[in-house]
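Input.
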Amino acid sequence: MTVPLTIRSGGVTDRGLRRETNEDALIVTDTMCAVADGMGGHEAGEVASALCVSTLGASELFTLEDFRDYRIVEPEPSSDVARFRATIDRQLKLDPEIPHEVIEAVRRVRSVLWEADHAIQAECGTRAGTTVTGAWLVQIEGVWLWLVFNVGDSRTYQLTGPGVGQPVTEQTGPVGVNQLTVDHSEVQYLVSIGQLTPAQALVHPRRNVITRALGTGQIWEPDVVVLPAVPGQRLLMCSDGLTGELSPAHIARVLHSVQHPKEAADVLVQAALRTGGRDNVTLVVADVLTADDPRANTSSIPRVR
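Output.
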């Protein structure tokens, strides 16, 4: 019998020290967490990110007992989208550990993101857009999985090494974070083809130029990563206001040492502010627990500053 799993999470968003407004937003539910980073100038980016997370939070996909009961609302895809979906189908079918029904779940995640894209364009025209990254905890054919999605350069990481608060030994290996998502940005493309090193990308003048976003009327195709969900896992979803200020090693140390996800989120935001706080900073830390764990159902509502 499969042991039921749940999420304990904590999030926080902060305007930072140099921005006049906070164009980031986040959503935390019982099964899904996400972070959005808006763009488009005064108020428009704030509207785009808010519409994105409200669409995700209101979607019945993440609350239905059987996700297949969610009706896909996206219209028939273009030839480019059809090729993209065919690529996802092939990738998932190549992994024998991934249930066949995951393909249907991925299609439904894409449909919800289409709803968000459509809502932003209806409200803002093409004057605003937003990145988004998130993770959905779902049981498919008796297997608990994370479906991690992203559009743009907001990121999702997984803590690696010993569990939260566990001692570091030769057997456990060092503490670290594994970036599960790939940035949709100009500099990431240049890194992928060997024209920039990761270190050069950090200081490149076009490092903030993204190549996919929701709501802009341009390319918005999501990437979806599927990985097993097990008790003790810790994921981090964040805007680039965090990763632009803190190194992966610093992030990993905090995620490993601070046990409650909300407290870990607060510590990371304060660290980002101390190192400059040049952008809005938003993040969600999510832990996987068994449903009968006494720590379950203690997710924290974020503070907005």
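DSSP finds eight helices and ten strands in the chain.
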